[in-house]
User: What shape does this take?
Amino acid sequence: MRTSRPRHRRGWLAAPLALALALGLAPMASAGTANAASPPRPTGAAPTDAGTGSGSADAHVRRSPLPVSERAPLPSSREELRRDYDRPDDARSRVAPSMRASAAAPCAVGDFTSRTGSALVQQIRASTTDCVNTLFSLAGSDAAQAFREAQMTSVAYGLRDDAATYDGTNRTGTAQLVLYLRAGYYVQWNHPATVGAYGPGLRTAIRAGLDTFFANGRSGNVSDANGEVLAEAVTLIDSAEENARYLYVVKRLLTGYDSSYDSSWWMLNAVNNVYTVLFRGHQVPEFVSTVSADPSVLDTLYAFASGRRSLLGTDRGYLVSNAGRELGRFLQHTALRSKTRPLVRGLLDLSAITGPTAALWVGVAEMTDHYDKAECAYYGTCDLQRRLAAEVLPITFTCGSTIRVRAQQMTSAQLDWACASMRNQDAYFHSVAADTGPVANDRNTTIEVVVFDSSADYQTYGGPMFGIDTNNGGMYLEGDPAAAGNQARFIAYEAEWLRPTFEIWNLNHEYTHYLDGRFNLYGDFTANIATPTIWWIEGFAEYVSYSYRELTYGAAITEAGKKTYSLRTLFDTTYNHDTNRVYRWGYLAVRYMLQSHRGDVTTLLGHYRAGNWNAARTLLTGTIGSRYDTDWYAWLGACAAGNCGGTTNPPANECTGGDVRTLGRNCQRSNLQATTGNLSYLYLQVPAGTARLTITSSGGTGDADLYYSPSGWATTTSYTHRSVTSGNGETITIDNPAPGYHYVSLHARQAFSGVTVKSEY
Assistant: This one.
């Protein structure tokens, strides 16, 4: 995900953290021997002896974010999945089995807009939850007909009548009634003029419905069957802004939780949803006055967090850390501080900044830092961001002139691997983007890569340290690229579920965001998305990540067979659309355009690089529009059948010139070879004003390392830059190289042949 600043979207609460090339071209004269025609500037002929040839190789975790600026009702369960950008597709998905995405249930909006009173209630009860979920997206006359106050009042009284005989299951469609009411509040919030105001009549009805449900003893059954209904009902408390009236439900669930809940995802979700009621209750005046009059909920939160610390470090630890956060959030109210402060201090004393209790300590410390910073000495949380950085990110590693890694825990080999992966990606990116250098006024000359040790660590520390939402698979923070001293960075984490294989989740995706923002997109992120560009921003990041690593994007190819979207529709994609459209379909659209209409992409990037967003939009919606639809759908069908075409990798020309050692602008020398311990020498002349010189090696057999010198033949003992990873995929990047001759060599750590060296500037 790419953003210029932390993004807290309405309704993003207590979400789980789910469970984120060298270009090769060929050889020349015999390596390790001096040729008669030496370059004009070397201090001497290429040495005939390369030396020894031994060349050394230098959770489901959920957290509530900081307060949002608007108090909108929560979206549907399926809608909440939209925040899960950049996540892996695996069994760690937050969706409970009964709510997992499936084939769309038959659902006609007219079934709801054409009915009133008891007929409407019966229609809702007879529908599926999947069907009712789709109503969260209603607008216009449909929204008004479905959710005007009279309709909502009928459904609320329908819930009352149903709840009176509720048997602890969803046999009579109780969950659908609750979900319909949630949808109504959500749509009315977003379209108040269309739906109309909600008044005291609905409030009386919704209280009757919720009172009856929570008074029914079966609403406390510990089971999946009840948990699904209960979890939605708890969220409805907040949707209806009845946070104060149902504080007893909050206390009941927190006090009643025990190990019997642990076998039911839905019961755990019901408990966790009480934090939504608390988190958003602070924006309801009646809630604050009610807690001030009876602050016993604070004692309940403290008892839960302190008494269940053994859950920390398990897949249920989020229940404890969220309790601590919501206790700490009450520090914002002066009247409650004398009660809250010692309880908060007590939780800090019972936990630590690192280790198994870190999620609790950090969550509570973040609240003190946000709401009661002046008393930091009392809490022991002064200078929180610096302390966290010192404790959690002790490793700093420089990959070269443009990349710095800060890590929680990485070995030297892992650091080398990550650096090589990003450095080598540079050449691939530039070959696809075909850029001529950074866009105007972009000073993001370096990128800081922050790597946490696991997804849980990212959840625990990412927000407090960098002010980001961590309900995602990583985030790139561009800042203002024109501002002096601005530091571009992305925050990522090791994919612990892949161990013992080491992988930084979404490393190449997020690094593409940095390169794309620097070389393709003028201005900051806000300017970049002034018109719909997300299809490119996320689709291109997916495309480069997968194609550079030569991986098949199976999930996207499966989507291709469905032919869900026209190309024209995808040009309108925003972050409000689901992740499937943003990422998989973005990838498909970008891949198709690069492979089939490269000229259009070149024109488009010309507009993007100049910041001419309106011209780019006209090109996409007018000039291109639907003109490629027939070919697009044919390509999707072929792709789904296994023939997507080759990924875009514009071939470089072979360098010209009689001296086979000479490189040039955007060309390559192929079939290079050398025996163990020897070198293959190359050189090139760079003109004045060159912003960046990139040298890459790839292909062939054996193990060749790449060396560079700006002043004479590059050897293993005379160089300024080198790339010495295992294999032949090496990259060296020189920013602002001096005009004149530059020297490159391939050193045979093991005998190599068929290797290509490419120069780009």
Notes: Confidence is low (pLDDT under 50) at residues 4-70, 77-105.
